Amino acid sequence: MPKTALRDIKTIIWDLDNTLYPYTEEQIEHWHEATVRAAIDLGAPITLEAGLHQARQSFAEHNYSSKIFVDTYGLCPRKMHAGLHPYSNEKILPVCMLTQESFEALPNVRHVVLTHAHRNWAERVLRHLGLRDFFEDDLIMGLEDYGYEEKHASNRGILQSLDQTGCNPEHALFAEDTLRNLERAKATGIQTAYVHHGVTGDNDNRPPFVDHVFLNAADVMMTLSKQKQV
User: How far is CA 20 from CA 49, 99, 166, 220, in A?
Assistant: First the structure.
């Protein structure tokens, strides 16, 4: 049993991609192409076709399409970070009305987005998903907003989120699809939630740093709503 019951949660810190909505094969392939086009813009001597092969390989090995271009061609990771999102189309992402309704049902919970993507992408995605109004402007944080310190390597983003909301760790929930990010965050005392979208989610074998397991964002919100009614 977690130290603090879900009914006492006041703030949810959300990852964005594959947490507030699920990945699709179409979106992943679209991201690969956006990454390649950004790499070409920055001077990588590749064709689109060859670059797509590299992007798929990089994603399979590192979960980052852009890593291979940074490592192979010496491209600036921060410029790659900013350069791929103008080629990305949020309109292809799936929209879930149940998620919107579940957010509306808990108006007193504050929400933060803490993403490795660019802030502009986060704002566009939230607007497309019908969730933009639930996030205050300064609580939408792209990687550039917390010093490019990735969540698996640093808790700067988590601590910054807690500071900006004035929330104690025990009253905050961090919802993520990436286990290594949850493992790092657990050291802050925050409650952790693994969002799996049906890919995995074995409650009996979850790691000790995972407090809760949820199917999707709507499941997080509806479970929290039920707990607050107890």
Answer: 31, 8, 23, 10
Question: What is the CB neighbour count within 10 angstroms for residue 67?
Answer: 19
pLDDT 10s per residue in the chain (230 long)?
445 689 999 999 999 999 999 999 999 999 999 999 999 999 999 999 999 999 999 999 988 899 999 999 999 999 999 999 999 999 999 999 999 999 999 999 999 999 999 999 999 999 999 999 999 999 999 999 999 999 999 999 999 999 999 999 999 999 999 999 999 999 999 999 999 998 876 666 789 999 999 999 999 999 999 998 86
Q: In the chain, where are the structural domains located?
A: 6-23+93-228, 25-90
Q: In angstroms, rounded to a whole number, what is the distance separating the alpha carbons of residues 217 and 221?
A: 6
For residue 179, the SS3 value is helix
Report the side by side order of strands in the sheet with 212-214: 140-141, 110-114, 11-14, 172-176, 191-195, 212-214
Are the C-beta atoms of 194 and 182 separated by less than 8 Å? yes
Closest CA to 50 of 24, 32, 77: 32
Quote the CATH superfamily of domain 6-23+93-228. HAD superfamily/HAD-like (3.40.50.1000)
Could you tell me the pTM of the whole model?
A: 0.94
Q: How many CA atoms lie within 13 A of 76 on its CB side?
A: 7
The token pair that represents 16 in the structure block: 């964005």
- What are the φ/ψ torsions at residue 114 (nearest 5 degrees)? -130, 100
Between the CA of residue 63 and those of 17, 53, 57, 111, 155, what are the distances in Å?
12, 14, 9, 26, 20
